[in-house]
Every structure is written in structure tokens, then in C-alpha cells.
Amino acid sequence: MSSSDKYKRQIMNDLAGGNVESLDGSPVNVDNYDNFDDFANRSSKEERHGLFRNAFHHDNVSPQQMEPELREAIAKIKPNERDDVAREFFKHLDKRGLSKKDLERQLGLSSHHASRMNADDVSKLANFTYHSHPDIFQEVMADQPALLKFLSNPLVGAALGAIASKWLRR
């Protein structure tokens, strides 16, 4: 097992670990989580948003570092989860006046239908969103946390870990 895999596993274990405290003092669910999937399934949307709000900023992880990570992570998630991620990106981008068809043409996607998009298409959409609309990227990551467990770059893990260590403690 590579050191980045061990580091990622440790971050996810810490994240799933237990006693929680809110950065802003608001009440937080104090359930213990068995693993990251348990955290993703049982945590509230507000808990995930609180955790991810600052984790994915260009200040922490540059777009050049994030692009290959997203490509690999999106290729690893289940097709139905990939469809959900694409739908969420499209939904939020549509609210900003970016239509699916315009994005298909602008990004060179094979389709503007989430269920017909391949992993490369979703990666292009995710990268565009990370570059141009980081707030939407953060929202989608909090709403669709399945993608996060496949991010393996130590810098990406460190960004998530730094936020998690402030928000969750063992």
C-alpha cells in the first residue's frame, strides 16, 4: 500500500471517527461513524457542507492538482453515482444561466444528458466547475460525497484532512 493510500485511509478514518464539534458553535450530530460511507450516508447535508465549504478552494488545491484527481475519482465511482454528480452540476450551473446544451458545446461533451455521459464528460464538467464556479463545486461535493473517497492525492487529502481535523476530533 502506498504512503498516499495510507494517508488517505487515516484521514477517512479520522473523518469517520466520532466526537464532533462545530467550528461555528452550532449544534452538531454527535453520532460515531464506522467509516466514510457511513459518514456519507448518515451525516446531514449541513454537516457535510460545513466540512467541505473550505476544503476545495484554489488556495488549498490548485486546479492543476485537482484535474487528474477528479478524472481518476470519477472513473472509479459507480455509473449511477456519476450520473447523480453530473445532474447536480447541471442543476446548479443552470441556475447561473449556463444551459446543458451550451455546456455540451463549450466543453466538448458527448451528451448533455447526465445518464448518457461517460466518465470523461463528467470529469470535464467537474473541472470546469472547479475552475469557474468553486462554490458550486463545493455544494456538489457536499451533496454527492461518494466522489470524495476516491480522491487520493496527498494535497487533496491534506485539504480535506485539515478541515476535518478542525471539525471532527477523535
Architecture overview:
The protein is mainly α and about 170 residues long. It has 2 domains: about 5-60 and about 150-165, no CATH class; about 65-145. The protein contains 9 helices and no strands. Helix 5 runs parallel beside helix 7 (about 120-130). The protein is globular, with a radius of gyration of 16 Å. About 35% of the residues are buried. Residues about 20-30 and about 165-170 have low confidence and may be disordered.
Short description:
The chain has 170 residues and is an all-alpha fold. The chain has helices spanning 3-16, 36-42, 45-52, 63-76, 79-95, 100-107, 119-132, 134-143, 154-167. It has nine helices and no strands.
Q: What keyword list fits this structure?
A:
9 helices, 170 residues, 2 domains, disordered C terminus, mainly alpha
What fraction of the residues are assigned to beta strands by DSSP? under 5%
Largest sheet: none
Low-confidence stretches: 18-30, 166-170
Number of strands: 0
Distance between the termini: 24 Å
Mean pLDDT: 75
The helix content is: 55-70%
Order of helices and strands: HHHHHHHHH
Per DSSP, the total helix count is 9
Number of domains: 2
The secondary structure category is mainly alpha
Shape, principal axes of CA atoms: globular
